[in-house]
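[stage:ingest] chain + small molecule (heme C)
[stage:ingest] validated
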Amino acid sequence: MRKYFTMLSLMFVMNIFLSCKGKITDSCATTEKVYTGTLSEVQSDVFNSFCIGCHGNITSNGGLNLSAGKAYNNLVNIPSTGSTLLRVKPGDTINSYLLRRLNASAGESPMPPSGKLNQSLINLVELWVSKGAQNN
Ligand code: HEC
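[stage:predict] done
[stage:export] tokens:
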């Protein structure tokens, strides 16, 4: 019986450690990243990690290429194909189609299609757009 309890508490402790691995949430403050809202942060942590398989140089769904060096010219002040909005309107997070898709807001289906990203990554894109969507 004691052995059983020791095992259980060990598993409990391990679970706490493992659940924090690779996450960037409040409960794992030590691994939380502080973003400044640059395009290079968005490129490496969002586009390269979650988008370029479908929006890259080989396949660019919706006519959208988000690979490094292409993303800016495919987004900023460019009309979207799926709506009447611009993909990214600098300083205007509400009327940027990219953010509607990331947030699955205003009745839009989410991007990526498998489901919304971790909120901290959506916040990063929002920060980039609100700071003027610069090519930085
Ligand atoms: C599994 C494939 C897939 C992945 C991964 C994916 N997309 Fe898409 N995306 C599509 C397809 C297909 C379309 C075109 C149809 C549509 O609008 O739903 C599209 C359309 C879009 C559009 C609209 C473009 C326009 O001009 O109308 C945006 C914005 C977009 N994706 C952003 C993203 C972002 C940002 C990511 C990564 C976080 C992402 N997508 C990941 C498949 C994908």
